[in-house]
Amino acid sequence: MLAETGLIGFFFFTALLVAIYRNARQTRRRYADDPFYLGVSTGFLAGFFAMLTHAIGANTFIIVRIMEPFWFLTAIVIMIPHIESSPRPDVSESHQRLLRPI
């Protein structure tokens, strides 16, 4: 990474990885009571550190088959707080419309 992008690119790449880690860690702590979000964020963090370890000896972050699922899961983990804070429609009203006789 350093050879291809230089010091500035390496700095921004490192800043991006640190921001991803902090966001995932904050999501894991905030939604620890929800087993689904806890599992997604914990699994993401485990995979994140595994990929960082693997990247020591290989070009992990340029292989498309690895990076497409990684960035997709990163987007999911980053969006969990936004999804949970958005207002949800009242489910009972929609069910009442469906159960109403025709």
How would you describe this structure to a colleague?
- The structure is a single chain.
- This protein has 102 residues and is mainly α.
- It has a domain at 24-84.
- Helix content is 78%, strand content 0%.
- It has helices at residues 2-30, 35-54, 64-85, 91-99.
- Helix 1 (2-30) packs parallel to helix 3 (64-85).
- The longest helix has 29 residues, at 2-30.
- It is elongated and about 65 Å long.
- The chain starts with a helix and ends with a helix.
Helix content: over 70%
Largest sheet: none
Low-pLDDT runs: none
- Helix and strand content put the structural class at mainly alpha
Order of helices and strands: HHHH
- Distance from N terminus to C terminus (CA atoms, Å) equals 63 Å
What proportion strand? Answer: under 5%
Total count of helical runs of at least 4 residues: 4
What's the Cα radius of gyration?
19 Å
Q: Averaging pLDDT over every residue, what do you get?
A: 86
